[in-house]
Amino acid sequence: MFATRYGGLGGLGGLGSTKRSDHLEHDWDSDWLPDIDAFDHGGKFYCNVDLPGVKKDQFHLEIDNEGNLVLTGDRQPDESIKDLNSRIQERNYGRFRRTIGLPLGSDIDNIKARCENGALYIEVPKKPDVHRRIHIE
């Protein structure tokens, strides 16, 4: 896995800018990369992913052992155009994989995700800061 092709800023870098951040990674073996916007707001982390032409059963979202969101899937052309001679083909097809590093304190047990109109919307609540005093003997 490598940092995104556009580099970026550390942490959630890129907030308020158009640069992609270092916390987004992809597998260089992917055939294409869905576009992602990630941001913090009101104690939550949000991630919006463009997945035009990808049906809900063509992708998976999971948490890996390091606490990252991992989005994988496969977009294939419509069967009705597979055998036609293309004059222009600008849409990308095939496998994709994106790894999204979650901010510290993310509540991974309460992540919500919904797919609507060719986009995936992910909402990750953050746990409140809890400071416990440790008794020193």
From TrEMBL:
Belongs to the small heat shock protein (HSP20) family. This is 1694_t:CDS:1. SUPFAM superfamilies: HSP20-like chaperones. Pfam families: HSP20 (PF00011). Residues 27-137 form the SHSP domain. Signal peptide: none annotated. InterPro entries: A-crystallin/Hsp20_dom, HSP20-like_chaperone, Small_HSP. Keywords: Stress response.
